[in-house]
Amino acid sequence: MKFVIEMNFKEAKVIVTGATGGIGYEIARTLRDIGATVIVSGRNAAKVRFAADEFGVYGCTADVSNETAITELFSLAVEQMGSANVLINNAGIGIFAALTDTPVADFQEVWEINVKGLFLAGKEAAKYFIPQNYGNIFNIGSTASLRGYANGSAYVASKFAVSGLTDCWRAELRSHNIRAMQINPSDVITDFVAKARMEIKNEDRKLKPADVAQIAAAMLSMNDICFIPDASLWATNTW
Q: Is the dihedral of CA 222, 227, 231, 237 positive or negative?
């Protein structure tokens, strides 16, 4: 089977949030490898420097929940890359507990990053993409964007909100030739799992960040006159 790549990745100017590990790290690497110009961002300055040096790309320390930091990230990205036309809206955290054991502070912390942070980055991207009448926004959701489960109140609620924002942006931005897309991976083996203190079983059969990066590159490669609105990615056999 022969595939035709429609997008010239050498023209892709990509901002990746949450790029110092896991899915964001691998998407940054993959897009860099196929010719895109990339800027990686994250909250930890040392990890941002490491990722930028590792890939030979630009780096910027930014907390996505801080509006000023997001404004500065995009300003720096445009200054260094000449323009920006792809946002990988990936930064996110997970805190999991039973409903009665979920502190309000934890609920709010998840929403600060997963919802407010995603909103701020998408809003800033639109400010640049609308005047140039072109752009691509990838919101990294989760299968938790599609249905809830026990002990997932804070995280699942935040990921449902991501789906809502993607739907709104898709309806609002299509007429400006901006593609708002979402990827919903199921369990992916990253340090996110360890930080959330979740048990890892059958690791060999679970998704890896490279699997998600492959989907992002494939969706981005499509002819600009069309797009896949969202893609859910499951492991074939986790048992």
A: negative
